[in-house]
Structure formats: structure tokens, C-alpha cells
Amino acid sequence: MSTKLSKEQRFLCLLLCQTLTGGYSRETAELCHQADVKEVIRMAQQHKVLPLLYGVLCEDWQGEAPDAADLKWVESISRTTVRQSYRLLFLTQYLVRILEDAGVPVLVLKGSGVAELYPVPELRKSGDVDVLIPGDRLEDATRILTGKGFYIKESQHANHHLVFGSEDGIDLELHTMLAEPFRDSGINRCMERLLTVCFEKKEYKECMGVSLPVLSESHQALQLLLHMLQHFLRAGFGLKLLCDWVVFWNRDEVQKIVPGFLELADECNVKKFSETITMVCKEFLGLRNDLVMGGSRDRRLAEDFLQDVFAGEEFGKADKDRMVIVQENSLSAYVKEFHYQMKMNHPKASRHIILWPALWVITLVVFLRNNRKLKRGKVKDILRSAGNRSRLLQQMGLDK
């Protein structure tokens, strides 16, 4: 294990490894005497993986076992997660049915489809429902959903998915691309090309006892990867997405799709990112299949990347100095990122160059207002954090 990680971080990784694979190492036994169990539980909750650990936390420990109050709290959170999982499952089933009945092609992203890969599917926490539809059917889908009592939420933060609210408080994200656009136009073109293929190759699978339309194995792997990259470039992501990667590739049946996935990853220019994620999961979380590795195996990069994951917790929420990541640590990079954020926030108006000065001002005002509202760090600290994280980008070949 990496000396850069604290005892608690290392122990959390080992517990997750034990949960996902059933494996138990000598280091797990050693660290259970040394790590602060309360801190391990706190970190697990911040990363939204605490329910996954309920089983191992209840085992007969030879070290400092969780006290009764902590275990009761973990049990309560796990029960809530199970209830939420079934609510999301049946809402997903309902949404798929009403869209398909109206002739709108639909694919389920993440959620129940990924949860099914876990030893106990109900314990993978999720907060909303994500489905993919063709872009030219968005208006039809919107009409169908609003007719069934869903409503378009006032606050929207993306260009290629629309967020709906429901009466029971669960959000639905209606996506028209595998992920939100990246600054890398090559990745965007790749996603556009693949959209039609994804629907042509969709599969129906039993997910927690319910048949749902999902991406083919190779396209699901790519979507998981692009989803991680999207969050990493914005602020970061937690351990849950790494756990998804482990349970996906630890299945024997996915061996046959490795060549197809590597071809897709190479086409989208995310193969090095895939190698880094795979290296992290292999070294720290029990990933057995290293056929998806390819290329060099840089352990130091894996350690640095995992440190970044721990620092940000779930989707970068823990580090107040995080917001975005820049392609390189220079003034021009910050200017380019600011301009890119302006275009992302104002996709229609930004087509008119004459409006750019006004849109820059609006973007700056919104940034400063949100920064204060969310109690983030000082602007200079945010920029420094973005610059530091840009070095990881360069190491993964994503700074083009």
C-alpha cells in the first residue's frame, strides 16, 4: 500500500476490497489494530460507500471494533439505502415503460444496472434515475413525462441532459449524450458517433429482478469511464465510482469484450485515463482483471490519483478549493477555461461573438456569487488547486 495514504484511508480501501471480492489480507488484520475506526466510518459515509461495508463492519474483529452506537448508525443508513434502491428501481421501470410505450428509445445509465454487479445490489447508493434517449426525441419525452406528473426543475446545470422532478422527491436526468461535452472535441465527436450504435446494440438485462434496457458491455464500460472523467475534470469524484469499475471488470464474462472496449477507449482518447483508473483499482481495491490495463503501469501516478480522490470525497465536495481543473498551469489555461465555462453556461447566446463581453461579466458574477454562497475557498486558492490537479491531467495525456 502507498505510504502517502493515512492508516484510515488504507484501511477503508482494504475493507472495500474485502466487500467487493471476499478477499482478506494480512494488512487488513494489522490495520484494524491501528486505524481510527470512527474516522474510517466517517470517510466511508462521505464517499457514499458506507452501506457497502455493513457486512464487514459486523464481522468478528480482532482489533478495535466499531462500537454499538456506530454499528446501529451504519445499519440505519444501510436500511435507508436499501429502501431507496427499490424506490429508484421501480421508478426506473415505470419511466422505461411509459417512454417505450410511446415509441421513444431509452437506455438506463448507471443506477440499477450497475448496482446489479455488486455482491449485494441494494447497498450501492444512488440518488436519482439516469436514462439516455436520442437527442431528436427530447421534446417527445418531455411531453410524455410532464403529462405523467413530472416537472422540469428550475435549476439546470448541463447542456445535454434535462433534470425532472417527481412528486416523491426523486430526480430524473434525461440524457442525450453518454456524458456532458468535454473541451476535447475528439471525445465529443466520438460520443456523437457512438450514440446511434448504443441504441442499436442495447441489451435487456435482469437488474435486481427487473428487466431493463441497458448499454452493451463495452459501451457501458466506456460510459462508466467517461462519467468518471467528467467528474474528475470538474471537481473530482469519490470511491463509489472506483468500486463500480472493480465490480464491472471482476466478472469472467467480460473478458471477451476487452478488445472492443480498448478500441473504444483509444478512439475517444481516454485509454491512458482508463489505465490509471484500472491501476488504482488493481493496487488498492481488489480489481483482478488487468487485461484492460494496456501500456505502462505507473504506480506513483495511481497513488497520486487516489490521493486526489480521497481529498475531494464524493464529486469534489470536501475540498473547498476545488471547482474545475485546467489543462495546464498557466494564465492562458485559466483564461481558456473561463471562456469554456462561459460557452457551456450560455450555449445559444455564446454563438454570437458580439455578446461575449457581456457573457464573460455574467459568468464572473455568477462564479463569485456561487463561491460565496457555497462557502468555497478564496479564488486564488481555487486557481492554485486547479493548477496542481492539472499535473495529473498531463500525466494521463489529457492535457491536449
What's a concise summary of this model?
By secondary structure, the chain is α+β, with helices and mostly antiparallel strands.
Structural account:
By secondary structure, the chain is an alpha+beta fold. Helix content is 54%, strand content 8%. The chain contains 16 helices and 7 strands. It has helices at residues 7-21, 26-31, 37-46, 54-57, 68-101, 111-115, 138-147, 185-200, 217-234, 239-249, 258-267, 271-284, 299-312, 331-345, 356-373, 379-395, and strands spanning 107-109, 128-132, 151-152, 161-165, 171-175, 203-207, 210-214. The strands form 2 sheets. It has a 5-stranded mixed sheet with strand order 1-2-5-4-3. The longest helix is centred in the first third of the chain and has 34 residues, at 68-101.
Number of helices: 16
Rounded mean pLDDT score: 82
For the sheet with most strands, the description reads:
5 strands, mixed
SSE sequence, one letter per element? HHHHHEHEHEEEHEEHHHHHHHH
Helix content: 40-55%
Unreliable stretches covering 5 or more consecutive residues: 316-323
Number of strands: 7
